Amino acid sequence: MIQDIFPHRFNNQYIANLPIGENDFVLHYHDNSLLMKTDGEALELPRKSDFPEITKRTESTFLFTLDDVPCFLVWDDLKVDYSLFTYQEISFFRTIEQPEIAWVSIAGFHLMNWYTQNRFCGKCGSRTEHKSNERAVVCPNCHITVYPKISPAIIVAIVSGDKLLLARNANFRGNWFSLVAGYVDVGETLEEALAREVKEEVGLDVTNIQYYKSQPWPLSGSMMIGFVAEADEHQPIRVDGNEIAEAAWFSRGHLPNHSSTISIAGEMIAQFEKGELQGCGEVKKVRV
């Protein structure tokens, strides 16, 4: 999956009061695009040394380290020589050959969006400040502390014997299918959220819910929690007609276009195709 970048090393431990160094990586976003250094078709992360205009007065925020090299979010506008640099729309992470760049690009995108959305206090409207000793923003007026938002979401491979249920989201382009997924609501367990989402989106009752694994998904600020569940294929499929446009059972060797293995959905579908999809946790039956 996309966060699996070995032998490269990603460390999101916050380092307080770290100044940006000449060799440090620079992540500079413009709308939904990231500034990259280019040499023909090859892309690489730029460094502070590429931008003489970055000084101690430049607004920058420490994010994380990649291979022990600090990565900084630079907020100020940069002078861009387009013969050396290019803005890449964030979806480039799906096709770039360097997995470490793909991962830090969207991890930084998550944090950039969170910082942008919390420049002002949601309670009193005062401008927030970066907390000096941890990754958080604090309101100097009402003293509220806000931490990065991570939204839990379930994603489930629904199986019936040698068949897998796949659904096409109304927002997907073309004939593209994936697994049923949805956000956990207030007061729900993960298993209850799963049963509710499946019932709402495709009209099925599921049993034998088993944990698979989890994956951070920075594009939506989510933590995807994967499960495998069973359903009787003779139940009528009733799509909600809003989020889900169509859904159907598919057999191995006859799967439609679907997610790649950079996502937990794609990995689970690939495991099903190989006949190796298994839950990893205690079997839990849920009634709704």
Spell out the key features of this protein:
288 residues; alpha+beta; Nucleoside Triphosphate Pyrophosphohydrolase; 3 domains; 6-stranded mixed sheet; 4-stranded mixed sheet; 15% helix; disordered C terminus
Task: Give an overview in words.
By secondary structure, the chain is α+β, with helices and mostly antiparallel strands. It has helices spanning 99-117, 190-202, 264-273, and strands at 10-11, 25-27, 29-30, 33-39, 42-44, 60-66, 69-74, 85-89, 129-130, 137-138, 145-146, 151-160, 163-169, 176-177, 180-183, 207-217, 222-230, 244-251, 257-258. The two termini are 32 Å apart. Residues 280-288 have low confidence and may be disordered. The chain is built from 3 helices and 19 strands.
State the domain count: 3
**What's the N-to-C terminus distance?**
32 Å
CATH superfamily of the largest domain: Nucleoside Triphosphate Pyrophosphohydrolase
Shape: globular
Summarize the model shown.
The protein is α+β, with helices and mostly antiparallel strands and 288 residues long. It contains three helices and 19 strands. Residues 280-288 have low confidence and may be disordered.
Give the topology.
Blueprint: E1 10-11, E2 25-27, E3 29-30, E4 33-39, E5 42-44, E6 60-66, E7 69-74, E8 85-89, H1 99-117, E9 129-130, E10 137-138, E11 145-146, E12 151-160, E13 163-169, E14 176-177, E15 180-183, H2 190-202, E16 207-217, E17 222-230, E18 244-251, E19 257-258, H3 264-273
Parallel strand pairs: 2-7, 12-17, 14-19
Antiparallel strand pairs: 1-6, 3-4, 4-5, 4-8, 6-7, 9-10, 10-11, 12-13, 12-15, 13-18, 16-17
Protein name: NAD(+) diphosphatase
Keywords: Hydrolase, Magnesium, Metal-binding, NAD
Catalytic activity: a 5'-end NAD(+)-phospho-ribonucleoside in mRNA + H2O = a 5'-end phospho-adenosine-phospho-ribonucleoside in mRNA + beta-nicotinamide D-ribonucleotide + 2 H(+)
